[in-house]
Amino acid sequence: MFDKFKDECGVIGIYNHKEAANIAYLGLHALQHRGQESAGIVSSDGASLYSHKGMGLVSDIFTKRELKAMPGSSAIGHVRYSTAGGSHIKNAQPFLVDYSRGSIAIAHNGNLVNAGHLRDELEAYGSIFQSDMDTEAIVHLIASSKENELVDRLSYALGRVKGSYSLVVLTEKRLIAARDPHGFRPLVLGRLKGSWIVASETCAFDLIEAEYVREIEPGEILVIDDNGTTSHKPYEKRRYTPCIFEHIYFARPDSNVFGVNVYEVRKNFGRELAKEHPVEADIVIPVPDSGVGAAIGYAEASKIPFEMGIVRSHYVGRTFIEPRDSIRNFGVKLKLNAIGDFIKGKRVVVVDDSIVRGTTSRKIVRMIRDAGAKEVHMRISSPPTLASCFYGIDTPTSGELIAANHSVEEINRYISSDTLAYISVKGLYRAVGREEDSFCDACFTGKYPVEIPSKRVPPQMVLFK
């Protein structure tokens, strides 16, 4: 319904808690924004692993009965939006298998750019895949390793893959967390009294009242067992390039991601945007929810009053039946509605986080004009999106990205705003307080930290065909 990049996935892991599955369930609630397609939990009682997963939201999949049937003091959980593999229950995670060394479950946030090559190789040697997930290639590599210790088998497997991964791995007696050497996707470690917690974002810690300890470092494999934590760093150090879009759109504003608070960074985006692209106006309004922080920052820096001029409905399902007599901008109106009393006769600055295809922005501008706005000035708290992502974000091909094929002025005419302006790449880095090239910004610059194989197109490139 919305013309936005789709959230990737969220993971959580718990070790040494008598209600591990319940804690995982609560953690997944906090991470629901990272994926609404499917969810799953695997628990361990020290002897066996227990799994339950399904399609839909966390609250729809798990009941007291399901959670009661998942005993044990350790668990991992996953919420998913597919970037590799289709929307089917067979692709829901965590992925659980039995092999010669016991049972193992894996939950993955990211995308492996060489998954197709690995799958071809593994199938040629007799591996049989049960899903379309790139994650399953990691499981087969672990099983095929000649190493004796699990951490060495995992090191071997992750040494073969290319791309992004933040993983939680569960066996009968251990919880393992791993992050790729570039640190594309976030992963953090926390404590809940005597228990260890691993999660994609710190907002999960807040809900379960866990204490933040530190980030899982890029290239680190952290083993958690009855002896405590043991850190392994088997790979050569690479350039740290976390995903800048975590700050722009994906992460919850109450999370600390890559060492800084997301809400404060988004306000900084707005402040920089106001400095770079001022305009005379009467009010600043955000496109909720992810545009709120940047709009507040823009209003503060420009001294233009901030208003919540658009209200968002949070109760829209996956599908909705449109009446026979077509309603203009029906899809957007289901989710957003302009408050005419605040907008009528005013010059309005509308702040949004991104423009992908431009279709939704066009409808939002028209909705605001229909509410009586005198002028509509669009301000975008990210640079023009010029290239696809292959590291765990579901994006259209470059041919479908409006900024890859049209100038800013052409986009402005298409969405019918009076003016349109984006924050610059330099402004983006100033807002975060880091040097240029210290994030993965390939979607804005086309500079990919990990080479994308040319012989086989990664699955997410064909999702929109």
CATH topology of the largest domain, which one?
A: Glutamine Phosphoribosylpyrophosphate, subunit 1, domain 1
Cα separation of the termini: 17 Å
Helical stretch tally? 17
Global shape: elongated
Low-confidence stretches: 455-465
- CATH class category name of the largest domain: Alpha Beta
CATH homologous superfamily descriptor of the largest domain: Aminohydrolase, N-terminal nucleophile (Ntn) domain
Number of beta strands: 21
Into which percent range does the helicity of residues fall? 25-40%
Second CATH tier, the architecture of the largest domain: 4-Layer Sandwich
**Content of β-strand:** 15-25%
Q: Return the structural class.
A: alpha+beta
Provide the gyration radius in Å: 23 Å
For the record, the count of structural domains works out to 2
Global mean pLDDT: 90
Most strands sheet: 7 strands, antiparallel
Strand order of the largest sheet: 3-2-4-1-10-9-11
